[in-house]
Amino acid sequence: MAGFDKVVNSYAEAMAGLEDNMTVIAGGFGLCGIPEGLIAQMKLMQTKGLTIVSNNCGVDGFGLGILLEDKQIKKMISSYVGENALFEQQLLNGELEVELTPQGTLAEKMRAGGAGIPAFYTATGYGTPVGEGKESREFNGRPYILEESITGDFAIIKAYKADRYGNCIYRHTAQNFNPMAATAGKITIVEVEHIVEPGELEPSQIHTPGIYVDRVIQGSFEKRIERKVVAK
Amino acid sequence: MAGFDKVVNSYAEAMAGLEDNMTVIAGGFGLCGIPEGLIAQMKLMQTKGLTIVSNNCGVDGFGLGILLEDKQIKKMISSYVGENALFEQQLLNGELEVELTPQGTLAEKMRAGGAGIPAFYTATGYGTPVGEGKESREFNGRPYILEESITGDFAIIKAYKADRYGNCIYRHTAQNFNPMAATAGKITIVEVEHIVEPGELEPSQIHTPGIYVDRVIQGSFEKRIERKVVAK
Amino acid sequence: MALSREQIAMRVAQEFQDGDYVNLGIGIPTLAANYVPADIQVMLQSENGLLGMGPNPTEDQLDADMINAGKETVTAVTGASIFNSAESFAMIRGGHVDFTVLGAFEVDVSGNIASWMIPNKLIKGMGGAMDLVAGAKNIIVTMTHADKHGNSKLLQQCTLPLTGVNCITRIITDLAVLEVKNQAFYLSERAPGVSVEEIQAKTAGELVVPEYVPEMQF
Amino acid sequence: MALSREQIAMRVAQEFQDGDYVNLGIGIPTLAANYVPADIQVMLQSENGLLGMGPNPTEDQLDADMINAGKETVTAVTGASIFNSAESFAMIRGGHVDFTVLGAFEVDVSGNIASWMIPNKLIKGMGGAMDLVAGAKNIIVTMTHADKHGNSKLLQQCTLPLTGVNCITRIITDLAVLEVKNQAFYLSERAPGVSVEEIQAKTAGELVVPEYVPEMQF
User: Fold this and answer.
1) Is B170 on the interface with A (CB under 8 A)?
2) Is the pTM of this model over 0.95?
3) Which residue of chain D is at minimal alpha-carbon distance from B211?
4) Mean predicted lDDT score pLDDT of chain A
5) C203 contact partners, CB below 8 Å, separation of at least 6
6) Parallel, antiparallel or unpaired: strands D106-108 and D113-114
7) How far apart are CA B161 and CA D130, in angstroms?
8) Has D198 been annotated as catalytic?
9) Chain C adjacent subunits, 3+ CB pairs under 8 A
10) What subunits make at least 3 CB pairs under 8 angstroms with A?
11) Residue D20: pLDDT above 90?
12) Roughly what angle, to the nearest 10 degrees, separates helices A103-115 and D85-93?
């Protein structure tokens, strides 16, 4: 009886089932709160033709940026991708497609995907290139555009603590996109700083209930800082 | 300088500005997690013609049920109203209007109202009386109906702890509709078991950030149990 | 002989698999929690915001802040999580709950279900039922095969206002287990001692009966 | 004389009222946090999920898990809250943030803003800017009145791809404070020592100038 114990013992097991041309939703904001080891495993697997949904694409040589090195990414759905040179080069060469999505719309698309809401209206992007080709409609005299939800074959997220059942909590602003990403994957994998036993997390303080999580793996993190700024 | 200190000292102050024919969104599920004192203040004020948005309407003599006694409610938007006789009587007499809304749709309508999303699609209610007169549309071969969001002139909620800035946490299942209700009121008032100082609540464990809250009042609660069932 | 409520609940519990997240409606469905096989674990979701519902509390454990969707006092199991109503229905609507078990007034061969409203009687509301039938991956309807007057509740087409359309795939009654597909009820099991003829007589909608219909095993 | 970046930020900070929740974009807007009047409190929202952003950390406080929307290390003030990105943009889109201050390439008399994309240059993305201009109750655009070549950035109609439409009501530049209404820029203040004529010369869109235009007060 495995019950609800979702802990796996290797990155290979954690990412088992990932195939070419799949869609992967990744938590994180910049380099903060990213599942470093799961990304490294994806590089190791050399899976190609991936569509990655993530607010950013890491930096040259770290985070999702390492998947660019062997051209594993076919398409990025992100709000901001200005942090790496390889990305720029592949985009200009036509080797990489990008679908720029406003940050709040991206977060809401993931949440909607996980929540069984296929589409919603938002004022964000109306009258801009983001709204082009999308239905627009007025509610109470204001125009909105229709945005469809996003789901993925896999979701990879990073938590601070998770119990064996997959209940997660996040630390500080490393929460960011992780809770929404967790809900939107057919298979959701959490890479975690500390695995704890069920009951150690206060039930009403859990950010991501275990029902969204399929696999839990103990990670080891570099936690690189993207822009170190200290008080003068 | 008042800054972000939102604590008020009387129920009269807490509900100041409530007028006839306004819409009030109330947190709570059954009698669990309801702002008892704010409801009592509404009875005291004898405000009439109210539209109340709440999953239930209390019971005879407690919770929102007391607003029925003097016919203060014109319309209820709820998912389940089968708990009180006065409600039934006023409904049959045509003195009260009810808009039955599926529980999940109701929660999402409040969330959407607070989140600036005027409408969303859901499969819930398609092909049923709930879907009648609403736009339906297929996404990926499945039919959905369009549901519009809800906002209120006031939102009244109950929290376990709130700091002076209005940051709230809820206890156990007394959370329920309170966090969504908090976001959807033009003026949101929290009645709370324990007022604490800013900094006492761990920032990443706050359920309702203070930005949604306008007034905080120290309550005293009966916390009546609707259906006491104990293990044999 | 027709199953008792407890026996229906026992048969329902056989459907659960290890690791399932399950939402149980009020009545017979709730009883199923008592018969989960000893070698598997399931976790109960209560739509007011609790994943990992435990048994009712002792007098000492009683807590007004700890209730289930039926508004009854409950406890939480080890490893439970508690969240708001929007999150709870995101789980349900988003298809994350593996099983929903609920009662019904009527079910039909199209997989439609009517369970919340009888016209000209007082309408209490649908609560979370419409979200549950629209969202769960697997829905099991439990009910008596016929009403008190002997009228079938398995119809060609529901007559009462619907709770959901094209969503019911399995029905467990006091007489039988049936699958709903291809615009028919497929009889897959019968209650011990209940004849195929009795089931046929009490099933108004199109019924497909295979050559051999095994009895339920308990 | 044209204002420095710091002076623009100082003028922006005069807009804040006690108890305001404010989102400050990268650049001049962020500087405004340094000039909040001593007798009021504002709380800074950072759209990656932090309400109550504090100053950058000391070396000892440095924490990779504690960053702002510009990906810089920050701290949280007493009474801060931290949440996920969907919640953060619910706040923004839902109109709960009182003020957003952000830079722009162009603004026009319809209140349109272009701030994220220059065709044929590398497109980095809009980040949260489109949500912010669609959601905040009050938006202040800070920018230089004209570009390096002397071309006005206050136009009759924006030429670059837009970030949002009909959303800008107030602009604070190195030369002036202007309101946007009735399809025109209304000049309300000028930088100390800057003439109305200079502002007129550098404003391409319809400009309405009242009889008396006061100088900004610092």
Assistant:
1) yes
2) yes
3) D96
4) 97
5) C145, C152, C154, C178, C185
6) antiparallel
7) 35
8) no
9) A, B
10) B, C, D
11) yes
12) 120
